[in-house]
Each structure stands twice: as structure tokens, then as C-alpha cells.
Model the fold of this input.
Amino acid sequence: MAWNELADTLLQLVESVSPDAGSGLVVTEAELEMPLEVSSAVRQGRLVFCASAPHSRWKAGFLPPVHRTRIRVEIDEIPEDGRGR
Amino acid sequence: MAGDGSFLVEEFIDSITSQLDRVQDSLRVKAVNRPLTYALKDMSLELKVFVELDTQGKVRFRTSGPNEAGASVVQLGFTTITKPMIEENTVSLAANRSPSLEEAGLAPDERLRLERMGVRNVGQLERLQSSAGVQSVARLAEVPVDRLRSALVLNRPKVTGVRPLPPQPAPPVVRPAPPVQPAPPVPRPAPPAPPLRVPAPPPRTPSLPSRPPAGPPVLKVQPGTRRIALSGNRLIGDDGPASVRLNNQPLGVSEADDDRIVIEMPEDHRGGALEISLPDGTVAAYELSVEDGESWGAWAPDEEYS
Done:
């Protein structure tokens, strides 16, 4: 199984909140709570955390444990100079 | 990360934080081309881990594997904070300038016990002992008092060397050719200021009545010396760099770092009493003497005298 880095998984989750362009909907705030399978690895001497959606929705004998995760995303207000906070 | 897959708690926090930073940076970049973007405000994680203590007494986590029961659940919450909050809740960079406990010669087990008391460098040790007393710190950390005192001496502000600096090159000036006249004698430029051996200032202890009091060490500089570099330790305090006075007149500081200060001398100074007031209130006094010294040789930038 290919593991995603935690940052990539979180970016995909944030992306999933955005409605389709032209739908006329705007999501201003969202809270997501989901299980993640978490593993750790070392890359260039640094600890890297990987996180992915669970293998299966079913409980089986030798699947990695899932770790409950909750994230809150909000619309970001970009200042006019575009530099952010 | 150890061979058994366990990792230190601080490594874990660092790793998660860098991943969250990457998420924020990516979202920010995305905002350049999109009218609407999101920011990750906070994240919490219920991490199932086995908590272990290694041989050095450090707590390590190991994520639970398949079919491993009995893992502890660590609830971690990460949220976004503002820059003032960071400054309020973190140790300033200036506080990390002092020597580490390892540089102070403390043994690993002594360092570990001090780190558990929130002491990671000699500056923090000094701050703790000023409020709790060195005896209390020694008793709580189980470190001999003598070892703590010798570590504290290392962090004391001091001047270890003084040397004149060569004059800064002036920008070239284009002048019209002068009328033809008999050539006046060409003055020879003064040789650059040589390095000086500066004896350490005398300790501030009362001299014995049988001996006359020793005068301050003499610094010899050549006429025209405009800049003098002081090297030492903790030359910058909370209120700014050490102040330097020549005959009670304050001198300007052109460069200041924790271990080096460059002072500007008056244009036509004739030497006198040079006093360096260090951040802890001690004063290093020297007698500045302006003398021609052709026998001193050329200025050597790589040499440091103390």
C-alpha cells in the first residue's frame, strides 16, 4: 500500500470541502472527523508521518489501528497585498 | 527514530508541525490563482501509541501496529496562533545565546536533570539560581554546587580581547590637477594599527595593604586609531550593548554582537581612561595610551589577543 504524507491527506480533505465552481454554494467553515491509519517513517534523517484513509470499513484481524482525527477548516481572508497573515 | 520504530515526543511534534506548515503553505499558494481558499484552523488527533522510557530517561512513543491491544490514546490538539502569541510563549532567541550545558562541562545525567527543571543553557541556569539560589538548584537537580558555580562563571560577561581596527577605506575623490608647483614633501601615511596584547583587567578585589594598588592595564594605540574592537562574552544585555566611555565621554558603538563590539573613537583623542560597563554591572577599566610605535609591525587581522 502506498502511504500518503499527512500533509497530502489533509490537503485532499480540505479540497473536498470546496464546492464545484458554478454551483453557487460557498462553504465558510467545515469540521471533518474521520479515522486515519497513521504510520511513521524516516526520510533523510527526519521523522515523517504518513496518514491515509482506512484500508477497509470492516473490522478484520490484522489491519492497522485507526486514529480518530478531527480538522476544522475555514475560508481564509487574504489581505489585499496577498501576503497572508 | 529508534530501530523498534519508536520516536521522541519532540521529534513527533516537530514532524506533525512541519506537515501542518506544508498544508498552510500549499493553501496559501493556491490562493494566488483562486478567489476563495481555505485555511486549516485546527486539528486534533487521537494517537494510539505505546509509551516507553528509554535508557536515558526520555519518553518515546511507538504507534500501535496491527492486532496490538492495550495502546494508550494520546489526544493532541494543534491550532493556529498569531505571531504575538508565539513571542509570548516561546523562549527568545537572545536567551539561547549563552553556552549550552554540555559546553559548560556538565555530565549527560546532570544535564538531563537540569533540563527537567526547564534549564537548557547556562543563561537559564543563571536566571534560576538568581531567584532560587544555587544551593537549592544543586539540591533539586542533584548536581554538586561546585559544578554549577563553575558553569555559571562561564556565562559571566567579560572582555577577553581588545584590538584596534584599520581605518575604513574612504571613497575615491576625483580632484582637478593642481597648478605646477615645487613638489612639497610627501607625508608618509601612518602604518595601520598593530595588534595589541591586552592584559586582563585586574580582579575587583581589595588589594592587600602591603601592596600598592595596581593600575588598569595599558592599551597602546597609534595616533589616528578610530575604531577599536572588543571581543568577549555576553557583551549585549537586555538593555543593549556594553557602554564604553573614554575619559567619561560615551563612545559610539558601530557594530554590536554578543561576542564582539566595535567602538568609534573621537577624531583627535589623546587616550585616557577607557571604561567598559558590562551588562551585569561590572566595569573593565583600561588606560588608553596613544603612542607612535613603528616597532609594533603590521596589523594582523587574524590574530586575537587576550
